[in-house]
Design a protein that fits this description.
This protein has about 450 residues and is mainly alpha-helical. Helix 3 runs parallel beside helix 5, helix 9 crosses helix 12 and helix 11 packs antiparallel against helix 18. The two termini are about 40 Å apart.
Length: about 450
């Protein structure tokens, strides 16, 4: 008997009962909001650190830590200060994870994505090897490479740990659990938006001028997270007898995307979410289908009524966005610069820290994920990310035949489409969210192989 395996002790069973409840993500979101709203980051970090350590020590299945990993990043009212607070806490969590590996005799499972993920970081490490060395000197290149390798260990190790310790158990509805985490995340962001506008002198002017800033992100980053969350709220609408009442929550989150006035997210999310609603209606059986149609219809009617009643006010609110239309906002010049850099530094690109420094500022953005890869990493990056995308979509497409798998696909594809006009891959919380979803999708395929069953509408 393994004396370090505490998963079946009475205390661990009580903890598991609490953290497996759908109310656990609500608790995480509440602590995150309080930490953000009242600048209590230190308190929030220690609460979450203690929770993660507790889960690592008492639970064999790390799936219960997912709500924390999906939500914790939105607690920082000052992004720069996050680094100073998080270092010690992250170190303690890593020690807890190492304890978990040895205590529960975890067999490391690379899955299909470990090598593709590491390939993208390898490309990042050699990226700019010629340009950075020739332009800034060898030491500058070494410093940049060490930073990339640190990220490689963090992301590669995080993926390896979660993929090896997450188990999709038969007696635990992980689909609803993860979907509730995204529902809570959406509510958290809407609460942060409402708090921001309540604190400014003129909320109407703030919305019209896109001044929204919540510390960890701005209008576009808030919109991308909302966009990724909405499919899971829609999924919940099909999982209960009266699940259609989740639809207003989904419409509210979608409406919040409009409030951010992120044109890219509006263009990316609208057709995909419309498609997913139709998909769910087709997949849903019995009376739930008609309730779903009725509620969706009522939401559309309510939205149309608001547009008619407040037409002038809404036009005034969004006139700046409508005036821009499909204007590139200076992106075409950046695209041209990226293309020229790709041609000039064809093999290894300029490196991720072209025109910047990883300590003082964020990377120079070309506002297009494909062009960012091409300019910064050259052909080496194109090959590495092509390798990653091949396995990524291989896993996703095999999950297309059930509603939850399709929610994952819609969530990730919406981010990919937005990534054509912005760089979402380097936003760490979106990258972590994507990896977590891919792990779940990968685990779903293992269930299909070991235990074939009818799809139903799950």
């Amino acid at each position: 008997m393994n004396k370090y395996d505490l998963s079946q002790t009475r205390f661990s069973i009580i903890i598991r009962k609490l953290v497996s409840s759908i109310y656990f993500p609500f608790f995480i979101a509440l602590i995150t909001y309080i930490s953000w709203a009242f600048s209590l980051v230190f308190l929030g970090l220690w609460i979450f650190t203690i929770l993660i350590i507790l889960l690592m020590v008492t639970q064999k299945n790390s799936i219960y830590a997912l709500p924390i990993f999906l939500i914790i990043f939105y607690m920082f009212p000052d992004f720069k200060e996050a680094y100073y607070f998080a270092g010690i806490n992250l170190g303690l969590c890593v020690l807890a994870a190492i304890y978990h590996i040895f205590a529960y005799k975890v067999k490391l499972d690379k899955g299909e994505l470990f090598y593709p993920i590491m390939a993208t970081f390898l490309a990042g490490a050699v990226g700019g090897i010629v340009y950075t060395t020739m332009t800034y000197g060898l030491w500058h290149y070494i410093k940049d490479t060490l930073f990339i390798l640190m990220l490689a260990v963090s992301f590669g190790g995080g993926y390896l740990f979660l993929n090896s310790t997450i188990t999709l158990e038969e007696d635990f509805d992980y689909k609803k659990y993860i979907s509730y985490a995204f529902l809570c995340l959406a509510f958290l962001l809407i609460a942060q938006m409402a708090t921001y506008y309540a604190r400014v002198e003129d909320p109407f002017k703030a919305i019209a001028n896109k001044t929204l800033r919540v510390g960890w992100g701005n209008t576009n980053t808030i919109a991308t997270v909302l966009m990724a969350a909405v499919p899971f709220i829609l999924y919940l609408s099909t999982q209960y007898k009266y699940g259609m009442f989740f639809l207003p929550a989904a419409f509210l989150a979608y409406g919040a995307i409009w409030v951010t006035q992120s044109r890219g997210c509006i263009l990316a999310s609208t057709p995909l979410l419309f498609f997913y609603v139709i998909y769910l209606i087709i997949k849903t059986k019995d009376k739930k289908r008609y309730w779903l149609i009725a509620c969706a219809g009522l939401c559309v009617i309510a939205a149309a009524a608001l547009l008619v009643i407040f037409k002038d006010r809404l036009f005034e609110l969004f006139k700046n966005m409508f005036a821009k239309g499909l204007d590139d906002s200076g992106r075409f010049e950046l695209y041209k610069e990226a293309w020229e850099l790709f041609k000039k530094h064809f093999l290894f690109g300029t490196g991720y820290f072209y025109k910047t420094d990883q300590i003082e500022s964020f990377m120079y953005m070309f506002h297009s994920t494909p062009l960012q890869i091409m300019a910064n990493l050259g052909v080496a990056g194109v090959i590495a990310f092509g390798y990653f995308y091949y396995y990524k979509y291989k896993i996703l497409l095999k999950n297309r035949n059930h509603s939850f798998g399709m929610a994952i696909i819609i969530s990730i594809v919406s981010l990919e489409l937005y990534g054509l006009i912005d760089v979402y891959l380097v936003v760490y919380f979106l990258a972590i969210t994507t990896i977590a979803l891919l792990i779940i999708a990968q685990k779903e395929l293992l269930i299909k192989k070991t235990k074939p069953e009818g799809e139903g509408n799950g």
